[in-house]
Known about the structure:
By secondary structure, this protein is mainly alpha-helical. The chain contains six helices and no strands.
Amino acid sequence: MPQATKPAPVLPPAHGDAREPLTHADAPSDPTTPRRIIATLREGVLDNSPVENPDHIFTHLLELYHHSGLDLAQAQLRQGKDPQLRLVADTLRHRSQRNLAQLGKLDLDQHSPGADFRSTSPTRARALQQVLQRVRRTLATPVKNNSPDQEFAAFLGLYYQSGLLLAGTQLRYGREVKQKDLAKQWQAAQQQEWQAVKAWQQATDTTR
């Protein structure tokens, strides 16, 4: 049988406004383990300019998270054995691919020439940067070496916990309707998927 080909990563579109500070890194390059994927995500979280429009920063962060989610899902589907976690990974993979495709047009629109890419509210900008520090600390939570399934569940928990912080911040401070809608959808999907992961962890906890 021919080997299945790995789906090509969905790359973010090029920036269209030459005036914008080019501070965002490329998408993660599909690291091989959840530990490396989360470390890469943690480094990318603060890769933004505090003078940029917070709604635009959220869109970039959402792209970063969906790329990382795709990497996490693919790592689990390659290495994981547990059928329940593989189902979670497959759900995450499909959602990440779908959302990345949707974000492409929004990213082009907000980086078109003349777009309002600078922040007009120091309060919003400061609140976002403070939350990003919390996100980074959450992603830095130590996870002990364990089986691929257990490590995937632990790192995916950090992924959801930090992502929910971002979604909640956008819902509280965001101004753009499209970004707030995306945040609401992302929040609901993460909560549902995280519940499945936590249920698996409780069911397989041998320390109780």
